[in-house]
Amino acid sequence: MAARGGAAARPASAAGNKTCQFKLVLLGESAVGKSSLVLRFVKGQFHEYQESTIGAAFLTQTVCLDEATVKFEIWDTAGQERYHSLAPMYYRGAQAAIVVYDITNQESFQKAKNWASPNIVMALAGNKADMANKRAVDYEEAQAYAEDNGLLFMETSAKTSMNVTDVFMAIAKKLPLGAGPEPARDTVDPSQSTQRASGGSCCK
Amino acid sequence: MDEEYDAIILGTGLKECIISGMLSVSGKKVLHMDRNNYYGGDSASLTPLEQLFEKFHGPNAKPAPEMGRGRDWNVDLIPKFLMANGSMVKLLIHTGVTRYLEFKSIEGSYVLKGGKIYKVPADEMEALATSLMGMFEKRRFKKFLVWCQQFDVNNTETWNGLDPHNSTMQQVYEKFGLDENTADFTGHALALYRNDEYKNQPFMPTVEKVRLYSDSLARYGKSPYLYPLYGLGELPQGFARLSAIYGGTYMLDKKVDNIVYEGGKAIGVKCGDEIVKGKQIYCDPSYATDKVKKTGQVIRAICLLNHPVPNTNDAQSCQIIIPQKQVGRHYDIYISCVSNTNMASPKGWFIAMVSTTVETTSPETEILPGLQLLGPITEKFVTVSDVFEPVDLGTESQVFISKSYDPTSHFETTCKDVLEVYERGTTTPFDFTKITHLSLEEQE
Q1: Count of C-beta atoms within a 10 Å radius of residue B206
Q2: Domains in chain B: how many in total?
Q3: Which residues of B touch A52 (CB under 8 A)?
Q4: In chain A, what residues touch B100 (CB-CB under 8 Å)?
Q5: Which one of A36, A188, A190, B147 is CB 3.0 to 4.6 Å from A158, fit for a cystine?
Q6: Are residues B127 and B269 in the same domain?
Q7: Residue A57 is nearest to which of B84, B250, B441, comparing CB atoms?
Q8: CB contact under 8 A, B221 and A191
Q9: What's the CA gap between B193 and B411, in Å, rounded?
Q10: Does A14 touch chain B (CB under 8 A)?
């Protein structure tokens, strides 16, 4: 359903652990491997010649922390970043973002810097780390930039799955799991036959 | 760009975005461009507030400090609500675009009668209590509503002696003994007709409209209308995302000079020095001014208020209909109001829009009866827009043009136009079973 604020309350998991849902968006230039990262994380798959994004509305995947289960609702750009035409709707209500660049492409790193936003949990991911022989972006330089701007940082490889789950896990740990519910917004879901109000924030 | 596209779509207004989504879903290779650097064209919600001031009052115009943070405002240029059981909602559900959006019910629906604002009764209790009509008239009206609900064109027993092929709506009113006030109320506040032409036409479309109103009302109770959080501009963005998910390419802020023809048939679009090739062009009237004709004018006044609309029980969102006869006009005047509850404005601020079809040479005077109902207006932005429609069906030129947005208060005609344009372009009606990403996700 439309849990746009990432905000719909979910039933607690069987373990009696609470489940928190968050909207996570992927940012970064075309062809840096955004969709591949998600596919690896969500489905454990990798396709060498992954087509430009033609896919799902969004994918979901959960990670389990000690105190809660975090359910990510992951939004891919659907290619709308190619000509700088991402819609404001894409970012709206996002509580986390992964800015992806390609370590073999210096320009993709420079452009990644434009995305930093202070209000949400962000990670910088230097993808295609398996292609270190063609490296064009220094690990230290990217790490220093991330530190200066309060971003999590990892080099990842969707191909070998290096650090893929880790980067999502690191984000999960930084999210405000204890935050109380936002006031109910009384929204309705037109796709449901009976009225239902979608409640406030993540954890209940 | 040496590629050739199956369709080039110009303008990211709601209609073009829905068409784009439908074409991409059907496997067409789509390029979608807009001259603006934002989505939505005329159906955008302007944000921040500074953008609205600059658009109407010039580059140096600034909102007053007490209007709060500019980005807390999302101001629609064209006022409309979604009928909860109407075609737009169905389209949103079938395409899965609902999942990008959140909706709220509009709190109240009102109608003006004899200079006074009345709540349109939302259920039987309210209907019995309303002072809109007298005791005996209420009973007759109730009988009429029951007949509307039960009417089945395939079952003559439900006709009650009224033949859907021959009887007019006027004859239905007479048959049920409804007086002129009730007829006015039915035609304008329930069936949402903007003038009285329907009375002399067969009654079936009116019965369907009354049913749409009651069915929509029944879904959430307060009013038949839904409205997306953050404004109507979310709708085109949602359908654009659908198109992109199915491979559509998006380019905003793109200078589009003109459509290029060869032997009367469009072959592409000229953008600066380059020509982008496309087999078909779909666009709004502003991208093909030589292929449209003006059919009328609409006036819309966006009013920023620091209070709810008076006499609406402090409704945070509402609609008020001023039936034409109440103010001696041919067309109704509509007022729509949204606020912070809809994420359209900061707390304490309200956006009211007064709109109607232009009938005289001084349109601003025409909307005065609406403006007078609003109480003090902090800021007002008025537009008079021409309404265009295409001069032909586009069969020869392969240029398929949508109509301008009309002054109806909902999206029923918008959806109708979209489905018609799609069918003209592809020669087949849209096949909703082509949408597969919904079931893909179910499998997760």
Answers
A1: 22
A2: 3
A3: 247
A4: 2, 4, 57, 89
A5: A36
A6: no
A7: B441
A8: no
A9: 13
A10: no
pLDDT at A16 over 60: no
ipTM > 0.85 (yes/no) = no
Residue with tokens 């509580």: A95
| pTM of the complete model | 0.90
Q: Is residue B49 part of a domain?
A: no
Same domain flag for B157 and B306: no
Among 3.40.50.300, 1.10.1040.10, 3.40.1080.10, 3.40.220.10, name the CATH number for the domain at A18-174.
Answer: 3.40.50.300
- In angstroms, what CA-CA distances link A20 with A52, A97, B98? 31, 16, 22
Amino acid at the residue B151: F
Cβ distance B322 to B409 under 8 Å? no
Same domain, B237 and B281: yes
Q: Residue B323 has what pLDDT?
A: 95
Q: How many CB pairs under 8 A join A and B?
A: 109
Closest residue by Cα to residue B210 from B240, B237, B178, B234: B178
Residues of chain A by 3-state class (helix, strand, coil), percent to 5 = 25, 20, 55
Q: Are residues B286 and B312 in the same domain?
A: no
* Within a domain: B48: no
Q: Give me A15's structure tokens.
A: 């373990």
Q: Which of B238, B342, B317, B85 is nearest to A191 (CA)?
A: B85
Please answer yes or no on whether B245 and A78 come within 8 Å at the CB atom: yes
CA distance B428 to chain A (A): 24
- Type of residue at A119: N
- Mean pLDDT confidence for A4-12: 40
Q: Are residue B179 and residue B259 in the same domain, yes or no?
A: no
Domain shared by B286 and B317, yes or no: no
Tell me the per-residue pLDDT of B96-120, one tens digit each, with 9 for 90 and over.
Answer: 899 899 999 999 999 999 999 999 9
Closest CA to B333 of B304, B303, B361, B368: B368
Among B99, B107, B219, B226, the residue to mutate for chain A (most A Cβ within 10 A): B99
State which residues of chain B have pLDDT below 70: 1-2, 436-444
Specify the length of chain A in residues: 204
Of the residues B364, B387, B410, which one is the last residue of a structural domain?
A: B387
**Cβ-Cβ contacts under 8 Å for B81 (sequence gap 6 or more):** B106, B225, B226, B227, B319, B336, B409, B410, B411
Q: Quote the domain boundaries for residue B12.
A: 4-43+233-293+389-443
Q: How far is A74 from chain B (nearest CA, A)?
A: 12
Q: How far apart are CA A168 and CA A173, in angstroms?
A: 9
Do the domain assignments include residue B271? yes
Pick from B347, B365, B387: which residue ends a domain?
B387
